[in-house]
């Protein structure tokens, strides 16, 4: 299918992220349609003394993609380059939305092994910031990368894998946009399979007491705790022999659209206007979702629509510390004047070998807190951050946090390996910005 070509360079306009908390006004924008054009855009920026950043769909809450130089929009770098059924890999252009990748793979009878809970992001944006789902044995999207193509500061195009440029591959799978611009990614894939999802309300005391067992017994376990209540909603996803039994059209709409988005939007809007009403509404909301079981292909089970906009902070802690940390968060909320209308999300991941992965070299649990957009969030996030950093927490690279390079060097054993590689690939910080200066150092 042909598409109208947009000029490779144009005057910059104001860019904002999905949450609306980050804005940037670049000198110019580039929309390359090939890796050659991307390399040219990088070289021209260097010649003009302008820094370069790439933006996807803006789902990061940090200023990780912000620039006052050249903003690269990868919306023409999309589509599948090739599917290798012998190696069971798919190579995809970096600007391809996960939604498009998932549906294209499904048409071919294929799937990723694991994914996050939304699929609006581009593949490069999701992997570069460490986007993850939940899993006992299968890790983040970046951990499923088998090869990547990277345009570096001098305009060179590097192919990186365990066999080719392995030291770059070890870091660039979650590269924060600091090592270069990812132009293509090769993922491991497998024949499409069925997952049975079991969603069930459970008390906070029971889910925390049984957390280790629930994690061990399920391939993918997660839960949401509703602040100001003792109630949680749990979700267990496990592979199934079938048959497929997706949610009914009406019941699925009620759960996923009316309750989880439409009604939740109203509840949060009321809570923003009348914070004192939040605890009572939380008690009602936490009982609104009933138990259900359904079976479908992976992306239809792992992901769900998220239309209510919010601010988010997420920390990765050692999995054995998750329950203690969450109990401390609950105690803090109960003794504070805070009013929190969004549930707290808890997921897990196995250890991986990526230098700046939040699960690097340790079994991990994620604790994510949210506040409705437009609601003051700093007091809540600061209090939670204090608890989670006391447990050696690692902040999600694309979500709100206040950590700097000095702290991060303590919690990432391979932090120096990453920054040394950055010094080699981008000594003049062509791909730098204020956020990377804070988290990686000058």
Give descriptors for this structure.
single chain, 442 residues, alpha+beta, eight-stranded antiparallel sheet, five-stranded antiparallel sheet, 21 strands, 31% helix
Question: If you average the pLDDT, what whole number results?
Answer: 94
> Could you give the order of strands across the largest sheet?
17-14-16-15-19-20-18-21
The computed structural class is: alpha+beta
Oligomer: single chain
Strand content: 15-25%
- What distance separates the N and C termini? 45 Å
Sheet with most strands = 8 strands, antiparallel
Explain what the structure shows:
The protein has helices at residues 35-47, 98-107, 123-128, 166-172, 204-209, 211-217, 249-273, 278-285, 298-302, 322-335, 378-389, 405-411, 415-425, 434-440, and strands at 9-11, 15-16, 23-24, 28-30, 52-54, 70-72, 80-84, 89-93, 110-111, 145-151, 157-161, 181-188, 190-191, 194-203, 220-225, 231-240, 292-296, 310-318, 344-349, 364-372, 394-395. It is of the alpha+beta class and 442 residues long. A hairpin with a 5-residue loop joins strand 10 (145-151) and strand 11. The protein is globular, with a radius of gyration of 21 Å. Residues 1-7 have low confidence and may be disordered.
Produce the secondary structure layout.
Blueprint: E1 9-11, E2 15-16, E3 23-24, E4 28-30, H1 35-47, E5 52-54, E6 70-72, E7 80-84, E8 89-93, H2 98-107, E9 110-111, H3 123-128, E10 145-151, E11 157-161, H4 166-172, E12 181-188, E13 190-191, E14 194-203, H5 204-209, H6 211-217, E15 220-225, E16 231-240, H7 249-273, H8 278-285, E17 292-296, H9 298-302, E18 310-318, H10 322-335, E19 344-349, E20 364-372, H11 378-389, E21 394-395, H12 405-411, H13 415-425, H14 434-440
Parallel strand pairs: 4-6, 5-6
Antiparallel strand pairs: 1-4, 2-3, 7-8, 8-12, 9-13, 10-11, 10-12, 14-16, 14-17, 15-16, 15-19, 18-20, 18-21, 19-20
